[in-house]
From TrEMBL:
The lineage of its organism: Bacteria, Pseudomonadati, Pseudomonadota, Alphaproteobacteria, Acetobacterales. It comes from Siccirubricoccus soli. Residues 155-179 are annotated as: Disordered. Belongs to the ATP-dependent AMP-binding enzyme family. Coiled coil: none annotated. Keywords: Ligase. This is AMP-binding protein.
Length: 504
């Protein structure tokens, strides 16, 4: 690991050696504030050097870095801070209003919002309030004790079925650390000497894993303050990026760039482009492979599971729509409602485990942790099937499946067709109450001006069985998505199910 390796954000850069020295100072400071083994340091930060510094510092002490989604409201932020029992929160100055309801005992250390973030989000240059990160670091001696066994960040799941849960893993054994290194090399392409680019927010699970591991192994790591499709292309060319992690929404935005813009940039340095976090429509993925070449890699996984399957572009082109076969040390089964294993081609709930992943619990929710396990395997509620060759195909989230007139309908299948309809920019399909069938399909669509419901219906009817064509189509200016590209369907469903007497 070269101390001379660079980490870049905007026009600023820092060597890995300097960043790790600052992390050691932060570790001493956190220890003086009472952070020890198993304790939490919350990070209310956008993509910036202090996110990495504070994360590495927490792990040196055997503690957990707890990223906070800065899109949340003060009540949601306060819930996470209380639930995690965080002793310290490190926050960008412009995000301090989100701490309005934070526990008064919490120590707040403020990071000055840097110019590239202020420009990307149209923010004023906020001044630090209270304890300033730079001044605080300067007062700390470097941590010179042996580091504790490192724990992964405690990521809070998205909370689409209630309050988010913190996934709290035990420290890994040496064998698990070696297995994790091999897995990260396979799914993310992270190996010593890569030139990495991180366009997604570090508070999300996969970008967090990609960013923290790349920060220790890469020859170069570029942090994007905010995803912008043309800027991403420019950064790939300028820094000869070979490894990056994207989500399908980013692919869609990249493909919508004018052809002359797409041709303007040299992308031949790319070797390993990983995507996950949300379903990728087949037409979108095929178009990206045609543009960038067979450098796309996909995995199926979750904060709770690890990454039990993965595939490269060649696998996917041979099996369009697959999310891959088993990774090293993984076990995966498709089970029906009675816990029986489903035969190939028959959808059921996905249960999996990865032997390189240390055991976990949901912080303060051990009963919920036990509820998702069956015979040593974990489920996050996804539905899918294995084909005869052992390739996994996803159908949908179990909670997103619509049962209309006794027929199971998987919205993800319909969305994959709908996103390809001319004029459609974004879409979501979900169930709404129906007095006759129990549920009916509704499509929420963001579309170009002039796109009509009749045209959308005709396009869907040409490719889908009639019962899969949504009975209702709604037009929206924007659909609720988080920065990982995950669609927040709950927000779309809510108004339809209010007063119905059913939990959505």
């Amino acid at each position: 690991m070269s101390d001379a390796a660079l980490i870049i954000s905007g026009d600023r850069q820092v060597t890995r050696g300097a960043l790790m020295e600052r992390a050691r100072r932060a570790a001493s400071g956190f220890a003086a504030l009472g952070v020890g083994v198993g304790d939490c340091v919350a990070l209310l930060l956008r993509n910036d050097f202090p996110f990495l510094e504070a994360s590495y510092a927490a792990t040196m002490l055997g503690g957990y870095a707890v990223p906070v989604n800065w899109h949340w409201k003060p009540d949601e932020v306060a819930y996470l801070l209380r639930d995690s029992d965080a002793r310290v929160v490190v926050a960008h100055a412009d995000l301090l209003p989100l701490l309005a309801e934070a526990p008064p005992s919490l120590t707040v250390i403020t990071v000055r919002t840097p110019p590239e973030l202020a420009a990307a989000y149209g923010l004023p240059m906020s001044e630090p309030a209270g304890e300033d990160w730079e001044a605080w670091l300067a007062r700390q001696p470097a941590w010179d004790r042996l580091p504790q066994p490192a724990r992964e960040s405690m990521i809070y799941t998205s909370g689409t079925t209630g309050r988010p849960k913190g996934v709290r893993r035990m420290p890994p054994t040496p064998a698990q650390m070696e297995g994790t290194a091999r897995n990260r090399a396979q799914i993310y392409g992270i190996r010593p000497g890569i030139r990495g680019l991180l366009p997604g927010p570090l508070y999300h699970s996969a970008p967090n894993s990609f960013g923290l591991r790349s920060g220790t192994l890469a020859e170069l790591l570029v942090l994007m303050p905010r995803f912008d499709p043309e800027q991403l292309l420019a950064l790939i060319e300028r820094h000869r990026i070979d490894t990056t992690f994207l989500v399908p929404t980013m692919f869609v935005r990249l493909l919508r760039l004018p052809e002359e813009v797409r041709r303007r940039y040299d992308l031949t340095s790319l070797r390993h482009v990983t995507h996950a976090a949300a379903p990728c429509p087949p037409e979108v993925k095929r178009a990206m492979i045609e543009w960038w070449g067979p450098v796309l890699h996909e995995f199926y996984g979750a904060t709770d599971l690890g990454a039990p399957t993965a595939c490269d572009s060649h696998d996917w082109l041979a099996k369009p729509g697959t999310v891959g076969r088993l990774t090293e040390g993984a076990v995966l089964k498709i089970l029906d409602a009675e816990g029986r294993e489903c035969p190939p081609g028959v959808p059921g709930e996905i249960y999996a485990s990865c032997d390189y992943m240390p055991d976990f619990t949901y912080h303060k929710r051990d009963a919920e942790r036990r509820a998702v396990e069956r015979d040593g395997l974990i489920t996050v509620g996804d539905v899918g099937y294995l084909d005869e060759d052992g390739y996994l195909f996803l159908c949908d989230r179990k909670r997103d499946m619509v049962i209309s007139g006794g027929v199971n309908i998987y919205p993800a299948e319909i969305e994959a067709v709908l996103i390809g309809v001319e004029g459609v920019l974004d879409c979501a399909v979900f169930g709404i109450p129906d007095p006759e069938y129990g549920e009916a399909l509704c499509a929420a669509v963001r579309a170009l001006p002039g796109t009509t419901e009749a045209a959308i219906r005709a396009a869907l009817q040409a490719k889908l069985a009639n019962f899969k064509v949504p009975r209702r189509i709604e037009f929206h200016e924007e659909l609720p998505r988080d920065d990982s590209g995950k669609l927040l369907k709950r927000k779309l469903r809510e108004r339809h199910w209010q007063g119905i007497g059913r939990t959505i």
